Structure formats: structure tokens, C-alpha cells
Amino acid sequence: MAKKLWGGRFKKKTDKDFFEFQKSIQYDHKLAEYDIFHSLIHVLALGCAGVIKPKEKTKLIKSIQKIKDEIAAGKFKYDKDSEDIHTDIQNKVEKKIGKLALNLHALRSRNDQIAFDEKFYCYKESIKIEGLLEKFMQSIMFLKNKHRELSIAGYTHTQRAQKIYFKDYLGAFYCMFERDKKRLSNFLKNLEIHIGAGALLRNINKDNYDKAIKEFLKGADFPVKTSKNTVDDVSDRDFIIEFLSILSIIQMHLSRLSEDFILYSTKEFGFFELPEEFCTGSSLMPHKKNPDFLELVRGYTGRIYGNLISILTTMKGLPLTYNRDMQLDKEPLFSSVGLVKDEIEIMSKFIKVVRLNKDAIKEALKDKNLYSVDRAKELVLKGMSFKKAHDKIGKEFRGK
Q1: Which of 190, 198, 288, 316 could form a disulfide with 282 if both were Cys (CB 3.0 to 4.6 A apart)?
Q2: pTM metric for this prediction
Q3: Mean pLDDT over residues 253-279, rounded?
């Protein structure tokens, strides 16, 4: 069992089964990069406050930077026996520089660290997803422009309604993802990454943290700021809920697109030909080409929604400030981010190689149901009231 950041008041050793049950290193190691950022700022603040000497500050920063470099190079290996990523990094610094590392955690709390880490994670991942959405929207535009002049049967209530342009049909999905991109942009605009809250009370002067942040950023455009209300900062998970809400809407749009493409690729419609490289076959029926990618996107929607509901439920009755229940926010967050990123990336490739069956589309356009509004409009332009025109054309479809 690795060293802990706590334990002085306890006489008995932690039960091994309980320790395994409560540790989070197996998933919060994904926050290592952001925990390093917190440590760097905190050491600078300790230096500004005179808690550590200039030489000690320099030595601590150099050791932390080495771990940062390991993370950047993909060489960082977390200790599976550590309680969490905060403890693991503390222990790694101690291995590098000895007892000086025991000052790394001076006057700070994991409550503050985890809120900072998760906000930074959401910030970075939002930017990545925004970029993936932009690429995906370009793929939609590619297919849309490829068939700009093509008309297709439009549907309401899954019944044939009116003839529309394919560019308008596909453009509807473009608009959905454009709104999603704006939601992410607004989320990023409003997100502030706070530091210096302690467990629930600031233990280092705000001015010292302000100086430390300025030195850490050195012109970088990260929204890192000193805590405004320390009690709120350590107990807030609104930003995760908001982020997962946006991801849930993105997932809903991906699922709607998937359902449409599944439906229109069936033999009953035959409008779309799905690319083989994103489909699978049947272990029994040799003729099958199953739209598994689209079905999995549709299926994962339940998990994405569940991740949001999970955190909403966790947070609904928690007293201020931090409670250990909040440890359970990470896996739903990481799960949704990973799934949505994978889906958008694959969908960007998928949609560019979808083929349209123009013969089947032209055949569907022969259906006179699609032109009832046009015919009613002609009668209206000749002077007939729309009600009479509607009734006159409607009678032709009785019993059909």
C-alpha cells in the first residue's frame, strides 16, 4: 500500500478491501497533466507566501516539470497501489527529491485539486470536441454539396410528405451540430478554472495565488483564476453537469442521424447505400450487411444519458462542501467524453462515403402524395380558398 496524504490521527491500518474499494487511481490517473498544473501553481504560491525558500521552490518545480515531461512524452506510469493521482504525484516527487516533497502539499487540499483538475480536463476536452465537430460538419457539407441538385421524398410522422432537396435534408443535421458547437463555445467562454480554495477555506493569501497564476501562465490563454468563493469551488460540479448535458444533446443528434440512415438504407426504402467498411455481416445469413456502427451510436445514447443522470443524482442532496460521493463523477465524465469523441471521429469518415441510390429516390418521387400541397397551391392561386382546395385534393386520397 503506497504512502497516503493523510493518516496521522488513525491508529489502525486501513482495511485492504476498503482501501481497494475507495481508491480512484485506476481512473483519475487521466487527470495527471492537470494535477501537475495545480502543483506548479501551488508551489509558486508557497514561494510567494514565504512558506518555502527560493531554492526549495526551484527544486520542487524542477522535479514536477520532469513528471510533466514524462506525461507529455507518454512515459508516465501511475502507481496502481496509490490512493489517487494526487497521492501518486506527491510520492513520485518525493522519490526524486526526498523529504522536501513533504512541503508540496502544504496548506492545500485534494478538494481543491480535484475541482481544478476536472475543470481543466473539461476545458481541454471541450476544445478537442469542438474541433472534431468542425471536421464532422465539413464532412456533412461534402456530402451535401455532392448532391446539391438532388430532390428526395421528405417525411413527417414517417409518412411521405413533400418533395425536398437532399441538401436541405442533410443541412438540418448540419444545423443541429452547428448549435452543438455554439453550446461548447459558450461553455468554454463561461468556464473559470479556480485554484486556492483549500478544503473549503483559503489558507494562502489571494494575492500570492494571483502572482503564482500570472507566473504560471506567462501569456498562455487558460482561464485560471483565484477562487472567488472557496466553499462553492470545492463543492461545485455544475460544470460537469453542463458539459455532460451538451454531450447528451450531441449524442441525441448523432443518434437521430444514425436512425435516419439505418431506416433509409433498408430494402424497404433503399435510398442510401452504407459503406461496407463501417458495417458487419451475419454469422448465419451470408447476404447480410448490418449497420452496426450506426446501431452502436444509437445504443450508446442510453449510456451517455445515464452518465448525466448519474451525476445529477449524486449531487442532488449533498450538503456543503465536499463529500466523497463526488469521487463518482469521474467515470461518467470520462466515459461520455471518450464515446462522443470516438463517434464523431468515425462519423466524419463514415458520412463522406455514403452513397445515394438515385434510382430508388427517383422511383419514390413518382408518388403523387408528395405533390398534394403543390396542387392545392395551384387552386389557391386560381382564386379558390385553401379550405376548399384542401378538401378537394384530400378527397382523392380517401381510403388510400
Answers
A1: 288
A2: 0.96
A3: 98
